[in-house]
TrEMBL record:
Protein name per Swiss-Prot or TrEMBL: DNA-processing protein DprA
InterPro entries according to UniProt: DprA, DrpA_SLOG
Assigned protein family: Belongs to the DprA/Smf family.
Organism expressing this protein natively: Arcicella gelida
Domain of life: Bacteria
Organismal lineage: Bacteria, Pseudomonadati, Bacteroidota, Cytophagia, Cytophagales
Residue ranges of domain Smf/DprA SLOG in the record: 78-234
PANTHER family recorded: PROTEIN SMF
Amino acid sequence: MKYTDNAINIITAKTYKGIGRAWINKMLKGNETVEAIVSLLNNNSKQEKLITIEDFEFDKNQITNQIEIFQESCDGLVAIGDKNFPKYRGNVKESERPIFLFYKGDISLLDIENSCITVIGLLNPDEKIEIREQKIVAEIIKKDVIIVSGLAFGCDSIAHKQALNGGKTIAVLPSPLNNIMPAKNKSLAFEIVEEGGLLITEYYDEHKSAMDLSSRYKDRDRLQALFCDAIILAASYAQDTAERWKMFGQKLDSGARLAMGFAKDYNIPRAVMYDQKLDVENPMFDLNRQLIAEQKDITILTQKSLDDLINKVKSKNEINNKKNAFQPGLFG
């Protein structure tokens, strides 16, 4: 398992009371000394008592021992300040910017130079939705665009499986890599890695409560939005679907709704799969209809608009790559 001393320092800092992503993104750039981190913790946070260098080193050793336990399930850990720590897309506030990631597979797939499109949706799509989503993903991977999704049942699994037919895919998990969730998709996770793909998570320990697990799913939805150049909603219920369609007692999908909301906040291009003639009476498209009605910047996918979206993603990254290539060096 690969990781730097810097990455362990970042994780250790986050374990202290009141220290979260916002504090770390504001106070640390990465590769600070332990002495510098301890000084910042003592002078710029609300610690109940002073932290000594010895305290920090002890806690750091505890973290190292904890993550080494699942080294066979994890290829590495990267954090802010590490050379290969991936750059997020869009406009993301400090509290939502990632500070470290555990990974298995090819971490370079997250490089900002690569084109990535997230494809998400509900847990129980019908066969017609599945076929339409497969066609969309097939068109995306033809252009060497990487598919991102959340390894959930239904539309997420469809996206990953279709991407494996000649493309690359990234799965974002709400759980540590030694405990793939959902467990029934463990074989799919292994296949993604075997085919040159990537699994990522922000977690190395088990959730402590139902509320904690819910928060982790929300973080998964956030990562799906900030590591893509565009996001596509295949189909999903809206928040009020149960009341409108008398589906009381049934747990409806919220992950797709959250991911689309994060993408809006980050100014990531959003698109939905929808056909007025085919889908108008289907509650599985309630969220799609709602987004189309409420938000003018939503693209409704057709063959042409999908091609335009893919080309826009590809051209944006090609322009960025050229800018980086001609960036003057130290002696330029």
